[in-house]
Amino acid sequence: MNGQNLGKVLITGWTGRLGKACKHVFPDAVYPNRQQMDVRDAESVKRFIQETRPDAVIHLAAMAGIPLCENDKANAWATNVEGTRNVVSASRDSESVKKFVYLQTACIFAWNDDEEYFEDSLPEPKHYYGLTKLVAEEIVKSYGGEKMRTHIARTNFTTMPWEYPKAFTDRFWTYLFAQGVAKGIRDILESGTEERIIHLCGDRKISMYEYAVAGGSKVEPMTLADYKGPPLTKNMSLSTKVWRKYGLEDSNYSD
Ligand SMILES: NC(=O)c1ccc[n+]([C@@H]2O[C@H](COP(=O)([O-])OP(=O)(O)OC[C@H]3O[C@@H](n4cnc5c(N)ncnc54)[C@H](OP(=O)(O)O)[C@@H]3O)[C@@H](O)[C@H]2O)c1
Questions:
Q1: For ligand 1, is residue 84 a contact (CB within 6 Å)?
Q2: In angstroms, what is the span from residue 29 Cα to ligand 1's centroid?
Q3: Domains assigned to the chain
Q4: Computed from CA positions of residues 82, 134, 130, 168, in that sequence, does the dihedral angle turn out positive or negative?
């Protein structure tokens, strides 16, 4: 059992940033590696799911990164769109899977500086990564029903330590740490909710600098006035109408 009444949970993409955090929150889950289940290969996905008969699937595996997807669009489509279709369709056909959670990036939004983004805000991806993730979200929604509930967990996070020597004091977001997102996913599975789209986000807008410091990183403050380069988004704050918001301090950042 993984916590309360979750049954057997299968999690794709465990070697990634969020997958590693999930290992703390779902220690007893089944974690296939790419050799056991390459999401681009429908047969390997079907076989693995039929053999393990999970009660719930958390689908993290993706080509997750804007430049990565821009530079290899064919693989981005095969992994993010067709790969997701393979996992969600094999899950529904399995008869064992009752809940399916798809991890969605907040990069599907346009990020106009003053706007807050809720579950019913209109997605407007500006790059191929966002586009593939949005198409996959629509596929996941189309597989949901009485037989298998599908949930889209949209979120944003980074892992610590902060990867740069400096962080902006005037760029804001409601990011969580990866382990906080993993706890949010567990809340979705434990709750029995029928909400299809859920934003997992922090309870207050903070600067990147505050976030990095809260994550225990030693960073210097900087402002947009110190920065020379392509335009940057000043605000990346998700909000929610249907779910609780999480305190960053509850969102343990250790690996
Ligand atoms: N990072 C963020 O800020 C963020 C924010 C919101 C949502 N998300 C979403 O959350 C999920 C996890 O993100 P992440 O940052 O943890 O990603 P990540 O660190 O880039 O890890 C990606 C994972 O997907 C696996 N994978 C890639 N292609 C695969 C394939 N063909 N078959 C099987 N596994 C494959 C990778 O396995 P290998 O080790 O074998 O390559 C790795 O385990 C993604 O769906 C992402 O879109 C991410």
A1: no
A2: 17
A3: 9-160+175-204+238-250 (3.40.50.720)
A4: negative
